[in-house]
């Protein structure tokens, strides 16, 4: 059964003004889908439509009943007045997660090598540490479906490897993952399926060979699925 079913006819930031259109896909248990597209193609807008954060959506987006979704934004968002650990306590309270969850949180934070920073304010962390903190917070709620916008941004090689391993582990537990990324080599290696967005529309979707075929990419690389746009100089 699909964890997420997306059928967007059109959607955007103003009523009746479409930024994206004709985007249809679903994510099943244990599926890692890469969402690929140039800057401004409409990836984040698609995610906003899924998260019900757009004023205008025509179509239908449905989640599996009882399915828990966790979203990790491209830019980390923290409460200024809370330490990292207080963020975990806050989420645990809001989601009614209980004492066991806080043990699990400590384990994730240890894996991410953030244990020494529990009582510091994440707003002062380095970019990579902030990103890892967000990931740890998202995994902590044990979601069925993870939506991640540019997860590798700012991560050092060790943390990138850790994230790849963690995503693999989550996938093997049957989680569905939708990941937006510009790191195409990694996406190509690890994703089960892809959706290519171009100028607000879905250009291709499916497994790598299907997507490459739909894009007419003959060199076997996702890079050729993206149109290179040259911005004209203003006269
Ligand atoms: N809050 C907003 N209000 C109005 N238009 C927006 C808003 N955010 C994005 N857009 C527009 O929507 C279009 C798609 O942008 P979107 O952020 O979805 O692209 P993206 O594929 O996520 O790009 P990137 O790879 O740069 O993150 C762009 O033309 C952008 O200017």
Automatic annotation (TrEMBL):
Transmembrane segments: none
Tree of life domain: Bacteria
Keyword Transport set for record: yes
Residues in ABC transporter domain copies: 3-224
A GO molecular function held by the record: ATP binding
UniProtKB keywords: ATP-binding, Nucleotide-binding, Transport
InterPro entries: AAA+_ATPase, ABC_transporter-like_ATP-bd, ABC_Transporter_VariousFunc, P-loop_NTPase
Tagged with keyword Transport: yes
Protein name listed in UniProt: ABC transporter ATP-binding protein
Annotated source species: Lederbergia galactosidilytica
